Amino acid sequence: MKRILFFSLLFILLAAKTQAQFVMNVLLQDHWVDSVFQSLTPEQRIGQLVWINTAANADLEKQFEVAELIEKYNLGGAIFFTGDPVKQARLTNLYQSVAQTPLMIAMDAEWGVGMRLPGVIAFPYNMMLGASDDPELIREVGKEMARQMKRLGVQMSFGPVADSNTQPLNPIIGMRSFGESPQRVADFSLAYMQGLQENGILAVAKHFPGHGDTQTDSHYSLPLVPYSRERLDSVELFPFRRLADAGIAGVMTAHLNVPQLALKGIPSSLSARIIQGVLRDEWQYDGLVVTDAMNMAGANTYGAPGEIEALALKAGNDVVEFPKDIEQAIAGIKRAIEQGNLSWDEVNSKCRRVLAAKRWAGLDQLEPVDPHGLLEDLNAPQTELVKRKVIESSLTLLENSQELIPLMRLDTLRIACLTVGSTPVTPFLKMLAKYTEIHDFFLPENFSKEELEAVKEQLQDFNLVVAGLHLYESKTRRSMQVGNMQRTRPERPYGLSGQTEALLNYLANDKKSIEVFFSSPYALAEVKNFQAPEGLIMAYQNDSLVQELAAQLIFGGISSSGKLPVSLGDYYAAGDGLTILEPIRLKYTIPEEVGFNSSRLNRRIDSLVREAIVKKATPGCSVLAAKDGKVIFNKTYGYHTYEQLVPVRENDLYDLASVTKITGALAAVLKMTDDGLIDLDEPFSKAWPDWQKRLFHRSNKEALSWREILAHQAGLIPYLNFWTETVDDGSLKPRWYSFQKQKDYTLEVAPGLFLNEKFTKKMYRTIRKSSLNEPGKYVYSGLSFLVIPKLTQRLTGQNYVDFLDQNYYQRLGAGRLTYNPLEKFSVNEIVPAEYDQYYRKRQIHGTVHDEAAAVLGGVSGNAGLFGTANDLAKLMQMYLQMGTYGGYQYLQSQTMQEFTRVQFPENDNRRGLGFDKPLLNNRELTPDAAYPCIGASPASFGHSGFTGTFVWADPESQLVYIFLSNRVYPSREGNLLGRMNVRTGLLQIFYDELAQ
Description:
6-stranded mixed β-sheet, 32 strands
């Protein structure tokens, strides 16, 4: 008993000390290992050395056959390949239930279980991990892989791939390798191993003694590795030696012909000189040794099923996996024992080693896999976050002439995205379009010369072409992803063709271009006479997240630090890669990146929004939030109308109503203040002479200052119904309206209805003559904003809309922030407002809802702007950053600081200049009494809109929030959206996440 206790304590202490190390000698002394071994018959001990292949998508007959073999022979392990995760969990439970000795469940899951299981997040290939040049990040990937595997009931991973890929035309390793440098491959393999083993998963290094410099595939032949022992030690063997010394749990022997290590023609997996001689004797490796699949041609070249399994065990392997025929394999092993070619001592020793590995993996306390919520657990946000981090660190910028990337002057660029070899609409294209207007073009795989010439003609009018090249991920496969690994016969390796080269030459010589290779980097090396474009990004694979993040890199949503893990002919060397230190624009990511809980966030927001839609507070809405310059929430809900015909989409334009005041009119005022055209403490009438008092020109507004007006305490009355002057008894006065656009009748108040422009003068006069309330008291008024467009033109000499486009929207890439959207967009892209039964007597759809803005032809400072949540976020982020965005200073910091501070707190006035602010004692109030919500800091600012819109920015929390809805559909009456506090309630949810 004391001996058992001693070794148990020793095992615990040593395991804690070595962390990731697998120490066989200690495990072999474990009581569980000994007791299980003693309970097994000789035949069952043989069974422990034979592991069967299986798949969750196999037919029922095959699944029961596997279960019968496990039960009959007490097989030691099962290796799962393709299938469905829930089915795999249930099969695992079935197989474990019929096994006398707990099965070792293994997976060939080099980039996570998603390699084998469609629908599960897969990590990048090892080549891309190597491009991160970050062992700690690779360790984090290994840790997350381990979490997935443990949840799925897997104990062993056949990884890392420790082959140094020094042969660009290697048909089977390639992207599965961390790179060409044995030292870096060793570093990254070690980090990968640590990530797995520190978190309870046995790692198995492959393909010993090294498959990285072959031009044939051991699945189909016996590849030759013809090098000297000196070369083998420094390249092929080097990473395996490091891993063996570091205590990796297992090593997988490959089917290779290595004459310098073994007798000629003997596969390395069957060679005692290699396994016993090098691995065991020279290196003193005491971990588990597992063969590569025994059904591969590389093994079968040397013998028949049964014979080769016995030879593998005799050579020093502990486990033979994936035999062609389980029963023949076991019969062959028995025959070898009977003939004296394999001893029972050898079998018993190997059995104990297998049991020791099972003890390390926790199979002494086996629990069934719970299939409930399995897919959600495997695809947890933390998994995606780790994947995003490693992709971001791996994208490799190889060319950046004149610092083209990140793109700066969006207002000067007419950008075409050319997709080559994929579907016309890709995640890459969709993400590019979040940053600015993109025109898309397409060339299929194997495009013809005529197709190329047609595209070249279409690209003539564009001054930048961004080409997404979706070539092959391996020498002969479009994709390395299991389930999509169709083998093809490309014209040239990696899917290259003469026409591809012609396209690349055109892009480099005739256009300013950025090329992004969503393929093996070796594809570029195969290009004849490659000429560098202005921008070149190696993105390594065709994964959706890779595409999205590559697009973000182009626009500066993320930084760049990746390094090439392999040389590309004479073009680029391993280690090449340019650095971009800081992002300059919004990044699109998930809530977990800023510490939010996406499950809780989505649940709470979905609940509140859906309640509003069910209660008909609004037919639909768009909600966006950004934290620390990262868009972490961007969802649409519901439909354009209650008839539920058109669902709300991200690019749909909403009537912003009074949000126009800070995103249109105030933007102009900020710029003019910055440029010295406006002095906030001078009279407004200096810039707008119509308010100056003179003979026969009465005015009570001459002395009102900009500061008082913008803070809403100048005494201006809230609103005037100008449109009522143009109707009589509910009918339009003919003197004011025409059903066609013609001389004088230019102000379109609705499609096909034009107001005489002379009415504008009448409107301005009405404003000037309107009464004044007591000054110094906060009373919200929109009257001054009605004249700001004309005032802007007077001060700048430029049309107001052009002024905003040129100074803000175009440079921001906010092309969907616009007045009169029907001039640019289809009606289907615009969310309708109410049915106007008083004035225009029609459904308002695509023209401004606000009547005061309507009589100005839709262009006003109080309302009239339409936009999307995404484009509004760009402008609000610029405001949040005190005037800076996209590497450009739109406004001076001191200007923004002045406009966003409370101006007259002594008057109990919470307002900034134009901007709304929280109540002065906001954080002292109850949640119901606070405005906009109790979480909003005193530094925060924003505005709301009558149609059901709301924007808010908080410099203290680095939070931007956008809510767009058409709550006025079909009628403005009631404002249930406001009574339910939906807009501000959602904002508080984001503040709640900050507090978690």
